[in-house]
Amino acid sequence: MARRAVAPAIALARGRALHPPDVGFVDLHSHVLFGLDDGSRDLATSRAMIAALGAVGFTEIYATPHQKAGQFMPTRASIDDAFAAVSAIVAPGVQLRLAAENMWDDVFHERLQAGGIPSYDDSDAFLVEIRPHELPVGMVDQLFRLRMKGKCPVLAHPERYEKLWHDDGLIERLRAQCAFVCDLGAIAGYHGKQQQKMARRLVEDGLAAAVASDAHTVEDVRTAAEGIAWIEKRLGKAGVTRLLDDGPRCVLLGELPE
Ligand SMILES: [Fe+2]
User: Fold this and answer.
1) What phi and psi, each to the nearest 5 degrees, are found at residue 71?
2) Secondary structure (H, E, C), 29-50
3) Residue range 19-55, pLDDT digits in tens
4) pLDDT tens, position by position, 209-249
5) Which of these, 140, 71, 143, lies nearest to 101 by C-alpha position?
6) In angstroms, what is the span from residue 256 Cα to ligand 1's centroid?
7) For the domain that residue 166 is a member of, what is the CATH number?
8) Residue 219 falls inside a structural domain
9) Residue 180 host element (H or E)
10) How far is the CA of 214 from the centre of ligand 1 (A)?
11) Which one is predicted more confidently, 169 or 9?
Protein backbone atom coordinates (compact mmCIF):
# COMPACT_ATOMS: atom_id res chain seq x y z
CA MET A 1 0.00 0.00 0.00
CA ALA A 2 1.24 3.47 -0.77
CA ARG A 3 2.15 5.34 2.39
CA ARG A 4 2.27 9.05 2.64
CA ALA A 5 3.33 11.57 5.21
CA VAL A 6 0.64 13.88 6.48
CA ALA A 7 2.76 16.41 8.27
CA PRO A 8 0.50 19.32 9.06
CA ALA A 9 -2.09 16.96 10.36
CA ILE A 10 -3.08 18.04 13.69
CA ALA A 11 -3.23 21.73 13.47
CA LEU A 12 -6.86 20.90 14.03
CA ALA A 13 -6.15 19.36 17.42
CA ARG A 14 -6.07 22.57 19.42
CA GLY A 15 -2.36 23.03 19.65
CA ARG A 16 -1.64 19.48 20.71
CA ALA A 17 1.11 18.08 18.55
CA LEU A 18 0.79 14.63 17.12
CA HIS A 19 3.74 12.98 15.53
CA PRO A 20 2.93 12.94 11.84
CA PRO A 21 1.70 9.47 11.02
CA ASP A 22 3.49 7.69 8.22
CA VAL A 23 0.38 5.72 7.35
CA GLY A 24 -2.93 6.52 5.79
CA PHE A 25 -5.88 6.26 8.14
CA VAL A 26 -9.13 4.56 7.21
CA ASP A 27 -12.37 6.19 8.35
CA LEU A 28 -15.04 3.50 8.71
CA HIS A 29 -17.82 5.89 9.68
CA SER A 30 -18.65 9.33 8.28
CA HIS A 31 -21.53 11.36 6.92
CA VAL A 32 -19.68 13.23 4.21
CA LEU A 33 -22.26 12.75 1.45
CA PHE A 34 -24.56 15.75 1.26
CA GLY A 35 -28.33 15.90 1.31
CA LEU A 36 -28.97 12.35 2.50
CA ASP A 37 -29.24 12.46 6.29
CA ASP A 38 -28.14 14.68 9.20
CA GLY A 39 -24.61 14.92 7.84
CA SER A 40 -23.22 17.22 5.16
CA ARG A 41 -25.83 19.62 3.84
CA ASP A 42 -24.27 20.58 0.51
CA LEU A 43 -21.38 19.88 -1.84
CA ALA A 44 -19.21 22.65 -0.38
CA THR A 45 -19.58 21.16 3.09
CA SER A 46 -18.71 17.70 1.76
CA ARG A 47 -15.62 19.14 0.12
CA ALA A 48 -14.55 20.90 3.32
CA MET A 49 -15.16 17.82 5.47
CA ILE A 50 -13.14 15.57 3.20
CA ALA A 51 -10.31 18.10 2.97
CA ALA A 52 -10.26 18.32 6.77
CA LEU A 53 -10.25 14.54 7.15
CA GLY A 54 -7.41 14.36 4.65
CA ALA A 55 -5.46 16.94 6.65
CA VAL A 56 -5.87 14.81 9.78
CA GLY A 57 -4.39 11.83 7.93
CA PHE A 58 -7.30 9.88 6.51
CA THR A 59 -6.59 8.53 3.04
CA GLU A 60 -9.62 6.25 2.77
CA ILE A 61 -12.97 7.64 3.83
CA TYR A 62 -16.09 5.53 3.90
CA ALA A 63 -19.28 7.49 3.49
CA THR A 64 -21.87 5.79 5.68
CA PRO A 65 -25.24 7.52 5.19
CA HIS A 66 -27.92 6.50 7.66
CA GLN A 67 -30.38 3.78 6.77
CA LYS A 68 -32.89 4.31 9.54
CA ALA A 69 -36.59 3.55 9.05
CA GLY A 70 -38.89 6.51 9.62
CA GLN A 71 -36.08 9.05 9.84
CA PHE A 72 -33.30 8.77 7.28
CA MET A 73 -33.81 6.35 4.43
CA PRO A 74 -32.09 7.80 1.36
CA THR A 75 -32.62 5.74 -1.76
CA ARG A 76 -29.78 3.95 -3.47
CA ALA A 77 -30.20 6.28 -6.46
CA SER A 78 -29.85 9.41 -4.31
CA ILE A 79 -26.82 7.92 -2.55
CA ASP A 80 -25.21 7.06 -5.87
CA ASP A 81 -25.85 10.60 -7.17
CA ALA A 82 -24.29 12.20 -4.08
CA PHE A 83 -21.40 9.74 -4.16
CA ALA A 84 -20.67 10.59 -7.79
CA ALA A 85 -20.85 14.34 -7.17
CA VAL A 86 -18.57 14.22 -4.12
CA SER A 87 -16.15 11.73 -5.69
CA ALA A 88 -15.60 14.25 -8.48
CA ILE A 89 -14.23 16.85 -6.07
CA VAL A 90 -12.20 14.64 -3.71
CA ALA A 91 -8.61 15.82 -3.45
CA PRO A 92 -5.81 13.63 -4.81
CA GLY A 93 -4.51 11.21 -2.23
CA VAL A 94 -7.89 10.59 -0.66
CA GLN A 95 -10.21 7.79 -1.69
CA LEU A 96 -13.93 8.06 -1.08
CA ARG A 97 -15.74 4.76 -0.62
CA LEU A 98 -19.26 3.72 0.11
CA ALA A 99 -21.01 1.87 2.90
CA ALA A 100 -23.98 2.71 5.15
CA GLU A 101 -24.89 3.04 8.81
CA ASN A 102 -27.70 0.54 9.25
CA MET A 103 -30.08 0.92 12.17
CA TRP A 104 -31.01 -2.43 13.74
CA ASP A 105 -34.68 -2.07 12.77
CA ASP A 106 -37.37 -3.76 10.68
CA VAL A 107 -35.88 -2.61 7.40
CA PHE A 108 -32.50 -3.99 8.43
CA HIS A 109 -34.04 -7.37 9.21
CA GLU A 110 -36.00 -7.43 5.96
CA ARG A 111 -32.79 -6.75 4.11
CA LEU A 112 -31.02 -9.48 6.06
CA GLN A 113 -33.67 -11.95 4.95
CA ALA A 114 -33.29 -10.80 1.37
CA GLY A 115 -29.48 -10.84 1.57
CA GLY A 116 -29.09 -7.19 0.78
CA ILE A 117 -27.55 -5.30 3.68
CA PRO A 118 -25.70 -2.18 2.48
CA SER A 119 -22.10 -2.97 3.37
CA TYR A 120 -18.50 -1.84 2.98
CA ASP A 121 -17.69 -2.08 -0.73
CA ASP A 122 -20.49 -4.68 -1.01
CA SER A 123 -18.39 -7.02 1.15
CA ASP A 124 -19.47 -9.14 4.14
CA ALA A 125 -18.61 -6.32 6.58
CA PHE A 126 -21.40 -3.90 7.40
CA LEU A 127 -21.87 -1.07 9.90
CA VAL A 128 -24.81 -1.26 12.29
CA GLU A 129 -26.10 0.86 15.15
CA ILE A 130 -28.72 0.32 17.83
CA ARG A 131 -30.73 2.75 19.91
CA PRO A 132 -28.86 4.07 22.96
CA HIS A 133 -31.22 2.99 25.72
CA GLU A 134 -31.90 -0.66 25.07
CA LEU A 135 -30.28 -3.75 23.66
CA PRO A 136 -32.46 -5.41 21.00
CA VAL A 137 -33.87 -8.74 22.15
CA GLY A 138 -31.78 -11.63 20.86
CA MET A 139 -29.14 -9.39 19.34
CA VAL A 140 -26.10 -11.37 20.52
CA ASP A 141 -27.58 -14.60 19.15
CA GLN A 142 -28.45 -12.95 15.84
CA LEU A 143 -24.95 -11.59 15.54
CA PHE A 144 -23.57 -15.05 16.21
CA ARG A 145 -25.69 -16.49 13.42
CA LEU A 146 -24.49 -13.75 11.07
CA ARG A 147 -20.89 -14.59 11.95
CA MET A 148 -21.59 -18.23 11.16
CA LYS A 149 -22.75 -17.09 7.72
CA GLY A 150 -19.45 -15.30 7.15
CA LYS A 151 -20.70 -11.80 7.88
CA CYS A 152 -18.68 -9.25 9.82
CA PRO A 153 -20.97 -6.96 11.82
CA VAL A 154 -19.33 -3.67 12.79
CA LEU A 155 -20.93 -1.91 15.74
CA ALA A 156 -20.95 1.89 15.51
CA HIS A 157 -20.21 3.92 18.66
CA PRO A 158 -20.50 1.12 21.27
CA GLU A 159 -19.72 3.73 23.94
CA ARG A 160 -23.21 5.17 23.36
CA TYR A 161 -25.14 2.10 24.50
CA GLU A 162 -26.20 2.37 28.11
CA LYS A 163 -26.64 -1.37 28.65
CA LEU A 164 -22.90 -1.78 28.17
CA TRP A 165 -21.85 0.85 30.67
CA HIS A 166 -21.98 -1.42 33.69
CA ASP A 167 -22.02 -4.91 32.22
CA ASP A 168 -18.59 -6.28 31.36
CA GLY A 169 -20.08 -9.68 30.54
CA LEU A 170 -22.32 -8.14 27.90
CA ILE A 171 -19.38 -6.23 26.46
CA GLU A 172 -17.46 -9.49 26.07
CA ARG A 173 -20.41 -11.36 24.56
CA LEU A 174 -21.07 -8.60 22.05
CA ARG A 175 -17.44 -8.06 21.20
CA ALA A 176 -17.04 -11.75 20.42
CA GLN A 177 -19.57 -11.33 17.59
CA CYS A 178 -18.86 -7.89 16.15
CA ALA A 179 -16.17 -5.26 15.74
CA PHE A 180 -16.44 -2.23 18.01
CA VAL A 181 -15.73 1.10 16.28
CA CYS A 182 -15.69 4.01 18.72
CA ASP A 183 -16.33 7.62 17.78
CA LEU A 184 -13.26 9.85 18.06
CA GLY A 185 -15.41 12.74 19.21
CA ALA A 186 -16.61 10.64 22.14
CA ILE A 187 -13.00 9.89 23.10
CA ALA A 188 -12.35 13.63 23.07
CA GLY A 189 -15.31 14.22 25.36
CA TYR A 190 -17.87 15.80 23.04
CA HIS A 191 -20.58 13.15 23.36
CA GLY A 192 -20.99 13.11 27.15
CA LYS A 193 -19.00 12.08 30.22
CA GLN A 194 -20.11 8.48 30.42
CA GLN A 195 -19.64 8.04 26.68
CA GLN A 196 -16.12 9.44 26.96
CA LYS A 197 -15.26 7.13 29.84
CA MET A 198 -16.60 4.12 27.96
CA ALA A 199 -14.92 4.99 24.67
CA ARG A 200 -11.58 5.54 26.36
CA ARG A 201 -11.89 2.27 28.24
CA LEU A 202 -12.74 0.29 25.10
CA VAL A 203 -9.75 1.80 23.34
CA GLU A 204 -7.29 1.44 26.21
CA ASP A 205 -8.30 -2.12 27.03
CA GLY A 206 -7.96 -3.23 23.42
CA LEU A 207 -11.68 -3.94 23.08
CA ALA A 208 -12.22 -1.52 20.19
CA ALA A 209 -11.26 -2.79 16.75
CA ALA A 210 -11.05 0.72 15.34
CA VAL A 211 -12.03 4.34 15.83
CA ALA A 212 -13.78 6.57 13.32
CA SER A 213 -14.76 10.18 12.82
CA ASP A 214 -18.55 9.73 12.52
CA ALA A 215 -18.21 13.26 11.14
CA HIS A 216 -21.44 15.08 10.34
CA THR A 217 -19.80 18.51 10.08
CA VAL A 218 -16.38 20.09 9.63
CA GLU A 219 -16.37 20.80 13.35
CA ASP A 220 -16.68 17.06 14.01
CA VAL A 221 -13.40 16.56 12.16
CA ARG A 222 -11.68 18.91 14.58
CA THR A 223 -13.00 16.93 17.54
CA ALA A 224 -11.94 13.71 15.81
CA ALA A 225 -8.41 15.10 15.60
CA GLU A 226 -8.52 15.71 19.35
CA GLY A 227 -9.51 12.08 19.81
CA ILE A 228 -6.53 10.94 17.76
CA ALA A 229 -4.25 13.19 19.80
CA TRP A 230 -5.52 11.54 22.98
CA ILE A 231 -4.93 8.05 21.55
CA GLU A 232 -1.38 8.96 20.62
CA LYS A 233 -0.72 10.42 24.06
CA ARG A 234 -2.05 7.34 25.86
CA LEU A 235 -1.13 4.52 23.49
CA GLY A 236 1.61 5.99 21.31
CA LYS A 237 1.97 5.71 17.58
CA ALA A 238 1.41 1.97 17.78
CA GLY A 239 -2.03 2.60 19.21
CA VAL A 240 -2.82 5.10 16.49
CA THR A 241 -1.75 2.61 13.84
CA ARG A 242 -3.76 -0.19 15.45
CA LEU A 243 -6.97 1.80 15.68
CA LEU A 244 -6.84 3.89 12.50
CA ASP A 245 -4.93 1.75 10.03
CA ASP A 246 -4.46 -1.94 10.83
CA GLY A 247 -7.71 -2.32 12.76
CA PRO A 248 -10.06 -0.89 10.16
CA ARG A 249 -8.29 -2.76 7.39
CA CYS A 250 -8.84 -6.04 9.29
CA VAL A 251 -12.49 -5.17 9.72
CA LEU A 252 -12.84 -4.58 6.00
CA LEU A 253 -11.43 -8.06 5.44
CA GLY A 254 -14.16 -9.43 7.68
CA GLU A 255 -11.88 -10.24 10.59
CA LEU A 256 -12.60 -9.52 14.22
CA PRO A 257 -9.71 -8.55 16.52
CA GLU A 258 -8.36 -11.16 18.96
FE1 LIG B 1 -23.04 7.86 12.16
Assistant:
1) -135, -65
2) CECCCCCCCCCCCCHHHHHHHH
3) 344 559 999 999 999 999 999 999 999 999 999 999 9
4) 999 999 999 999 999 999 999 999 999 999 999 999 999 99
5) 71
6) 20
7) 3.20.20.140
8) yes
9) strand 179-183
10) 5
11) 169
Q: What is the pLDDT of residues 118-175, one digit of tens each?
A: 999 999 999 999 999 999 999 999 999 999 999 999 999 999 999 999 999 999 999 9
Cα-to-centroid distance, 78 and ligand 1 (Å):
18
Residues within 5 A (CB) of ion ligand 1: 101, 214
Compute the distance from residue 136 Cα to the ligand 1 centre, in Å.
Answer: 19
* Alpha-carbon distances of 115 from 43, 108, 111, 126, 141, rounded to whole Å: 32, 10, 6, 12, 18
* Domain assignment present for 6: no
| Ligand 1 geometric centre to CA of 228 (Å) | 18
Hey, CA dihedral for 85, 87, 88, 91, is it positive or negative? positive
- Let me know how many helices (H) and strands (E) the chain has, helices first: 9, 9
Cα–ligand 1 centroid distance for 158 (angstroms):
12
Whether 3 is in a domain gets the answer no
Ligand 1 centroid to residue 183 C-alpha, Å:
9
Question: What Rg, from alpha-carbon coordinates, does the chain have?
Answer: 17
Question: Cα(102) to centroid of ligand 1, in Å?
Answer: 9
The number of folded domains in the chain is 1
Q: Which domain holds residue 187?
A: 23-252
CA of 101 from ligand 1 middle (Å) equals 6
Kindly report the pTM of this predicted structure. Answer: 0.90
In a domain, 127, yes or no: yes
